[in-house]
Structure formats: C-alpha cells, structure tokens
Amino acid sequence: MSAREQQQAQPPPAAPPEAGELDAGNRYEAVVPHWFYCKVTDSRERWVPFSTQDSERLEEAHGSGRDKEDLVVPTSGGRYDVHLKKRQRVAVYWEEEVSEVRRCTWFYKGDKDNKYIPYSETFSKELEVIHAFPGSVHLAEKHLGFSLSNTGPDVPNSIWGDWHHSHA
C-alpha cells in the first residue's frame, strides 16, 4: 500500500473537546515538583534546577517519609550532598557556601526579574490547595492579598501553567 493510501485509510483526527466537556470529566491533578537550589553570586540569588535524575531522586527520598530524619541524597555525580531535612546543598570535596534547596511547584516573576523564582514550599502548598478547590479562589484572594485571575508580575505560576521546566 502506498503512503498516500495508508494516509487515506487512517481515520481523521478527533476534534478537540468543547470547553464544557473538559470540566465534566477532569479531576484536579497536582503538579509534579522539581527541585532547585539557590546559587548566590555577587549578592544576587539565582534559582537553578537540579538535573531530572537528581530531582527524581530527591523527590523519591522526600516521598519515602524519611525526610524527618537527616536523610542525605548525593547529587551532581556525588559532588554535592543534599540534606533533605535542612533543605541544604553542601559541596563534598571543597569549601563552598551552603545552598538553600526547595521542592518547587509554583513560581513568580517580578518587574525586574528575567527569570522565574520559586515560591517557598509553604506558600506553594497553600496555592496547590487553592487550585485543588476552585470554588475557594475568591476566599484565597482575600487571604493572599492579590488576584489569582490577573496576569500581573506578582501572580503565581505553576510549573505546568505559564512556565514549563525543560528537563536537562
């Protein structure tokens, strides 16, 4: 069968669902976190993503429930250790400033920022709860002090919303 005949034999692609159809069957699904560390250079903070492999390893350790103890996860080929309970990244073989580590799902971008910055884990959890229960958004806006429906610089973005982390 020729390529053209094969193409004609295939059923046409399904039409995209109508907006109402999406709401009926969809359930809220939490975003998959990615782990970042803070690199400070010339007194400027820059949040750097861990590799996909390291982030998955950190998430697995976090999900084990053992992060209440001082669980240490090697990263960057064993050059750095992440102390999960303390949320710190420590160089193994040389002296270097300890870096803060965050499990990230929500980000913001200020007026003067050219990169997205992760919210604290506590605030991200609050935002996740708000988006899990859409009816509570108006109450959350009152509690948080800004609108979740605007698109200004202070509005949070989920990792899968306006910003997609490219897994390196």
TrEMBL record:
Instruction: Enumerate the InterPro entries for this protein.
Output: PA-PLA1, WWE_dom, WWE_dom_sf
Its Gene Ontology cellular component terms are: COPII-coated ER to Golgi transport vesicle
Every WWE domain range: 21-103
Any one GO MF term held by the record is: triacylglycerol lipase activity
Q: Could you tell me which PROSITE patterns the record lists for this protein?
A: WWE (PS50918)
The segments labelled Disordered in the record are 1-24
Stored PANTHER family: PA-PL1 PHOSPHOLIPASE FAMILY (PTHR23509), PHOSPHOLIPASE DDHD2 (PTHR23509:SF7)
Q: Can you say what this protein is called?
A: WWE domain-containing protein
User: The organism's lineage?
Assistant: Eukaryota, Metazoa, Chordata, Craniata, Vertebrata
